[in-house]
């Protein structure tokens, strides 16, 4: 990311005097990390009296005319410019918007005032309308400052300690953890022991857990977009079940292991931070095939993609679901939470959002079961802790994803970055 340029079109340039000369933004401007030009809209007034507004057609307050706005914009706009109008009717400003604007070379901010700006200018010239909240301000100058401040934090070197940006609320989809400073005891209240212990790993665990607690209590809605994997202290396992599963006639069978499933699901598991990808089949010949594939890639000659070998190292085979869960419990020293997936509607099934909340609240090891062939046998569902609702798309009545696709979609909904 290079230098981000901002141009702010306003009828009240004096608003920005202190903003451009103080704190982090002021320092970033002086150091040349960001550029901010203030464009006085009255320099483009329609007459010598400095008129930029007029009465609203149909009655109401004053509206900024399109001519001065258009002339001001022409004086600063290039092919790479992105024009933003700050408006209470715009999309609500959030971290996604911040990151999108930070990727632009030149952001032009149009500050409204009075009743707003002429709609024809907005339709012709504005790329995005942004609101900083569901309330009305006297003008767009304060929202413009908010936008510049938020975007500037993502420019390398603007915030002294780069990792501070990564720890901010919303950057990773979760709220930030609490912060404390000296004195260690104030009004009888002590700084948490984990923060003064000197144990960095202990401190990190405490902070992750407090971020979870705070998000669940204050903004549980954020979980729908958040990657929760860094906030789970226990292992996450994906189980691909080949027995017991159903055939098209509804009978319990053992399905065949396929190399394509092993390769693709391994790569998804590695991408989303899964501890182990487990294949369950009672057939020794199928287990041997799994081992053969893993061994082949472990000893693969130069020239083959080493990332494929890394992904396939997650593979492990078991005779049964029970054996696998016993192994996980022994490894994690806790009984895993078991989650079954299905393409069919089942009573009591939960959406992914609710599973994310449960995983964060309980912070247990988790094993997610996927069925092959026509899905997991009914007996499996009676023995799990959670059944997930089917993955549904736009068509709704068609639901016949490959297991490889289902695994990738579900892992992304649970552990994907927004």
From TrEMBL:
Coiled coil: none
Phosphoprotein recorded as keyword: no
Subcellular compartments: Cytoplasm
A Pfam family it matches: Methyltrn_RNA_4
Keyword S-adenosyl-L-methionine: yes
Main location: cytoplasm
Oligomer and partners: Homodimer.
PANTHER family found in the cross-reference section: TRNA (GUANINE-N(1)-)-METHYLTRANSFERASE (PTHR46417:SF1)
Name of the protein: tRNA (guanine-N(1)-)-methyltransferase
Organism of this sequence: Acetomicrobium flavidum
């Amino acid at each position: 990311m290079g230098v981000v340029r901002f141009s702010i079109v306003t009828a009240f340039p004096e608003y920005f005097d202190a903003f451009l000369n103080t704190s982090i933004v002021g320092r970033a401007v002086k150091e040349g990390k960001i550029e901010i030009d203030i464009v006085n809209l009255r320099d483009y007034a329609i007459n010598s009296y400095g008129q930029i507004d007029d009465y609203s057609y149909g009655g109401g307050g004053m509206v900024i005319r399109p001519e001065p706005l258009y002339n001001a914009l022409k004086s600063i706009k290039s092919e790479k410019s992105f024009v933003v109008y700050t408006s209470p009717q715009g999309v609500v400003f959030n971290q996604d918007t911040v990151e999108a604007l930070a990727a632009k070379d030149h952001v032009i901010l149009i500050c409204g005032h009075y009743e707003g700006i002429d709609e024809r200018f907005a339709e012709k010239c504005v790329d995005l309308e942004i609101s900083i909240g569901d309330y009305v301000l006297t003008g767009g100058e304060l929202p413009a400052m908010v936008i510049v401040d938020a975007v500037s934090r993502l420019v390398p070197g603007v915030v002294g300690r780069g990792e501070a940006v990564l720890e901010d609320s919303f950057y990773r989809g979760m709220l930030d953890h609490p912060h404390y400073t000296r004195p260690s005891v104030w009004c009888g209240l002590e700084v948490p022991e984990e923060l003064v212990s000197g144990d960095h790993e202990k401190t990190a665990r405490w902070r992750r857990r407090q971020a979870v607690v705070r998000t669940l209590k204050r903004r549980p809605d954020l979980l729908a977009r958040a990657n929760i994997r860094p906030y789970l202290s226990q292992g996450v396992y994906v189980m691909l079940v080949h027995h017991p599963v159903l055939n098209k006639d509804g009978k319990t069978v053992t399905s065949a292991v396929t190399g394509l499933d092993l390769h693709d699901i391994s790569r998804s598991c590695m991408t989303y931070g899964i501890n182990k990808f487990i294949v369950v089949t009672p057939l020794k010949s199928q287990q041997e095939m799994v081992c053969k594939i893993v061994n082949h890639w472990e000893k693969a000659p130069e020239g083959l993609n080493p990332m494929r070998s890394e992904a396939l190292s997650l593979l492990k085979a078991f005779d049964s679901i029970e054996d696998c869960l016993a192994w996980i419990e022994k490894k994690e020293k806790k009984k895993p939470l078991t989650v079954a997936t299905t393409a069919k509607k089942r009573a009591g099934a939960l959406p992914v959002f609710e599973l994310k909340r449960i995983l964060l609240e309980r912070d247990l090891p988790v094993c997610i079961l996927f069925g092959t062939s026509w899905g997991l046998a009914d007996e499996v569902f009676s023995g799990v802790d959670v059944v997930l609702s089917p993955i549904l798309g736009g068509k709704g009545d068609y639901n016949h994803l490959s297991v490889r696709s289902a695994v990738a979609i579900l892992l992304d909904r649970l552990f994907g970055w927004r």
